[in-house]
């Protein structure tokens, strides 16, 4: 069995002070993928920079205090890759992968975008470059008899069942028609599977992100933007997927919740 957790920590040092460290110490996951770490490895607490019993890779952003992705694995990887070969994003702290026995696991932090700004243009460039990489990764992994799991914050709600207030967000980044169509291409053209929807095609939710503003968390007015996206063979072997939603607003250590899935490998 392989258990993988993914979570956008919204600043790892801040999350560590609010409960992430305790969650990490207690997790039964074999691999933990983090996004929006926002810290150089040198300033992370030792128990998170290089925890005992884990093999760790951190991919910080060249711009301090932004982005950053990490992977922790209890099994030593055969190899590690930071970035996906696109020069603009190589040191942006948005993608890292580990080649483990039988599976490639990646941590992804796709740009969030903002309509009418350069941030949305950056998101569009990232998506345009990332889709062919996903195809190439699928093929390369298959030739090495491995499945692929790209988990993380994809920053797109794919369908109306993936966010509570979808009608009010039709013109907002994260639910734009062109973003949703791109994610459909990941599934239809690149051949990957949204593992949550494979297990639960009806929805709504479960949501993985809730704004800190207002009563979004208390009212479960969230978005499902944190995904396990797998090649079909691995998706078929998923036995469970759980969103580890905090018991209360006060118990949250991020505006996202961990998404944890177990696979038969």
Automatic annotation (TrEMBL):
The keyword Iron does not apply. Gene3D superfamilies: Endonuclease/exonuclease/phosphatase. GO terms for molecular function: double-stranded DNA 3'-5' DNA exonuclease activity; metal ion binding. PROSITE patterns: AP_NUCLEASE_F1_4 (PS51435). The active site is at 109, 153 (proton donor/acceptor), 256 (proton acceptor). Keywords: Hydrolase, Magnesium, Manganese, Metal-binding. Pfam families: Exo_endo_phos. GO terms for biological process: DNA repair. The record marks 256 as: Interaction with DNA substrate. Its cofactor is Mg(2+); Mn(2+). Mg(2+) binds at residues 8, 36, 153, 155, 255-256. The record marks 155 as: Transition state stabilizer. InterPro entries: AP_endonuc_1, Endo/exonu/phosph_ase_sf, Endo/exonuclease/phosphatase, ExoIII-like. The record marks 226 as: Important for catalytic activity. Probably binds two magnesium or manganese ions per subunit. Residues 6-256 form the Endonuclease/exonuclease/phosphatase domain. Belongs to the DNA repair enzymes AP/ExoA family. NCBIfam families: exoDNase_III (TIGR00195), xth (TIGR00633). This is Exodeoxyribonuclease III.
């Amino acid at each position: 069995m392989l258990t993988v957790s993914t979570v956008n920590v919204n600043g790892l040092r801040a999350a560590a002070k609010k409960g992430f460290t305790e969650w990490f110490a207690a997790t039964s996951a074999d691999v933990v993928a983090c996004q929006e770490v926002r810290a150089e490895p040198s300033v992370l607490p030792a128990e998170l920079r290089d925890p005992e019993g884990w093999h760790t890779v951190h991919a910080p952003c060249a711009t301090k205090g932004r982005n950053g992705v990490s992977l922790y694995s209890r099994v030593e990887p055969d190899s590690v890759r930071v970035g996906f070969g696109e020069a603009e994003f190589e040191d942006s702290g948005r993608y890292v992968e580990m080649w483990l026995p039988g599976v490639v696991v990646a941590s992804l932090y796709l740009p969030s975008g903002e309509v009418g700004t350069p941030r949305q243009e950056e998101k569009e460039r990232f998506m345009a470059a990332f889709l062919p990489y996903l195809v190439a990764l699928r093929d390369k992994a298959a030739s090495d008899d491995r499945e692929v799991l790209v988990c993380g914050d994809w920053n797109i709600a794919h369908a109306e069942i993936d966010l509570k207030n979808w009608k009010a967000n039709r013109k907002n980044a994260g639910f734009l028609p062109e973003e949703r169509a791109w994610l459909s291409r990941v599934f239809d053209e690149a051949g990957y599977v949204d593992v949550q929807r494979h297990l639960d095609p009806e929805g709504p939710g479960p949501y993985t992100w809730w704004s800190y503003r207002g009563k979004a968390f208390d009212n479960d007015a969230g978005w499902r933007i944190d995904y396990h996206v797998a090649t079909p063979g691995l998706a078929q072997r998923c036995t469970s997927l759980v969103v580890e939603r905090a018991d209360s607003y006060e118990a949250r250590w991020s505006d996202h919740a961990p998404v944890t899935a177990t696979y038969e490998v």
